[in-house]
From TrEMBL:
This is Alpha/beta hydrolase. It comes from Nocardioides conyzicola. Belongs to the AB hydrolase superfamily. The lineage of its organism: Bacteria, Bacillati, Actinomycetota, Actinomycetes, Propionibacteriales. Keywords: Hydrolase. It comes from the Bacteria.
Amino acid sequence: MKHAELTFVSGGVDCAAWHFTGEGDALATDAGRPVVVMAHGLAGTMDSGLQPFAEALAGAGLDVLAFDYRGFGASDGTPRQTVSMAGQLEDYRAAMSAAARLPGVDPQRLVVWGVSLAGGHAISAAAGRDDVAAVVALTPLVDGLAAGRHALATHTKAEMLRSTVAGFRSKLGKPVMMPVVARPGQLGAMTIEGSMDDYLAIAGPTWRNELDATVGMELGGHRPIKQAGDVTCPALFQVADFDRSAPPHSSMKAAFKARAEVRHYPCDHFDVYAGKRWHDAVVAHQVAFLTRVLGQA
């Protein structure tokens, strides 16, 4: 499916985006089609596994705006490869404004979609808004503190200490870069057995296996679970029950607060992407949920 390339401004930076136009008029009203705003998780870029999701939703009649955060992928901005939770949330909100201005869309029927780290951003971006018609949170990371505790099951204390020290060094002096994904025992943001192969399998041409080590400090303060109760629109939480990266129990707590519909999958964090066993089910549930709640709207 073809898509248009465009940019929007967030925090004075040009962010790159892809616009997929929805097919048919099954979900269209006189005001236009609903539009999904979509972004990736930790260090992810829109060319790294998002397109199959976007195409499926566009095929169901929704416009989709997928984008890269500032400093990542095709977007401008410096420093590069540095995660700022506040900056990424600002980018989400700017993308929502840009999506509302797209031709043929209904600005009062925004859908906020996020996977992994962005699943938490989607919750925060939708909280307290009356122009958001639905939220889709796929394997969401909603509580950084809980994720840190969860990581103790798959990482040694020495590994976690090494990452923490690198983060402090980067915060206090010259930036310290580390891999996004690495083999178990190596320095990296994600070193769970199999995660490197899984991430590289979806990595697109703009993706870089490099990240500022301050990411651990940013994750510690990432707690969109606190805002889940302020999401007033229908929400779908898709939880990987054997997720070694985003704690499933935290996702369930956030889903309860958001009064969300929940789907469970007997898989790990990366098993929801195209080419993996559970991708088709995940996409089918998203399409069914959005078709139902937006059709009712």
